[in-house]
Amino acid sequence: MVLLFQACQKNGGAEENIAVYTVTVDPSLTYQKMVGFGGALTWYSDRVISSPNKAAICHYLFEDLGADILRFKNWYYPADYPINKSAETMVTDGMKTSFTTTNQLYILAKQSNPGVRILLSSWGPPASLKSNGKLNNGTLAKNANGFVYSAFADYWNDILDHITFSPDYISIQNEPSWGTDNWETCVWRPSETSDYPGYENAFDSVYKRISVRTNPPTMIGPEAENIGASSFGGNTFGSFSDVLKDKSYLSMYCYHTYNFSASTTIGETESLLSMIAADYGDKPNIMTEYSGMTWLKTAQFIIRNLNLANSSGYIYWEMVWGEDDNNAMIKINYAGDYTLTPFYYMMKHFAKNVNEGDYRIDAEATASYLDYSAFINSSRDKITLVVVNSTTHDLKIDFKVTGKTVSAISGVQTAEGTFYTDLGAISLTDPVRLKASSISTFVITI
Questions:
Q1: pLDDT confidence of residue 6
Q2: Does domain 3-30+382-445 have CATH number 3.40.50?
Q3: In DSSP terms, which residues pair with 91 in a beta bridge?
Q4: Which of 107, 134, 145, 231 has its CA 20 to 30 A from that of 270?
């Protein structure tokens, strides 16, 4: 009747029973429907296209990983927009390269996985629509009639006219209250003030403009930079989400979690993640950008997003990044040489066997130091269980599923130095070992 976890530890060659942990998994009690797992392809992606190892890298990105969703950055910044709307001439050569790269990556991704979903996020409007006349920092421009929401909506329509693919989802503004001189940004407030444009107004304007298109993308938001206290009062994610709650054309909430860092304990994330499910559970939600924790803590954090926020997916930020970045899933240098990192294998534990359309199912345990989440597929004959053992000692677990007969179990495990290791044939009766500081994925056929 239960999924049984039995913890054991080696002690001088003999196995010492520490405790027996019971986790009840009920496939009949379902929670959120999954959109899936994936990563963002933004800066550094041009190195993939120019690499002599392009085929191998694309295999890992679009086939081996099993990603269901990819996040692309909007690079449509024509020189002298809106007088010139051609994608042939961008503000910089680098933006033109990145624009072309994104179009090519879309084709490659769809060739490998026709079902992969695409989120297109924009970091801000062109300089001609900015208060400071620059891509970086500033806010939306004003004219005699107020903030130029209509021109902003026209810009989004032009984006969709000039990219060579059709995104499934769009986010009109990445991190809407964050401004910096270091890259494209545009500062908003949830509702219009005398100094700032209203994100709500822009959301409405874009929807009205693109809704008449054939098969327009679905709108998600607000991609707030954090789920903590804002610089203008209230919770950043909550304040921007409150103005969207009653809009039928918002399909998913999306958020970032940069109020957390490498030093944040997992326990510190719980109340804010739970807030998302409690206060914004009327629609699905997805975490669309974050990196900054160790690979093992990231695995724990993903599970907390799934279990506490009821998140329908998780998009890792640094899917491909420079060779010196230790948070990248794939490091790549100017020459196109690449390295798969522990973050790649960690994300594969979620992405490979948890798919769009699966449902998270109920799982409860008294073992506070195990992190886990369970899913069932649409045909209800496969359960995927992801388990993190964050302790410094090995454990063993037994499998039993409520009300179901288990016919087969397979599994893979990652610990430092041994990544995504096939555990071979797993006995239906004998316990399986979880290494210290490891993540394991088990596929249970029922």
A1: 45
A2: no
A3: none
A4: 231
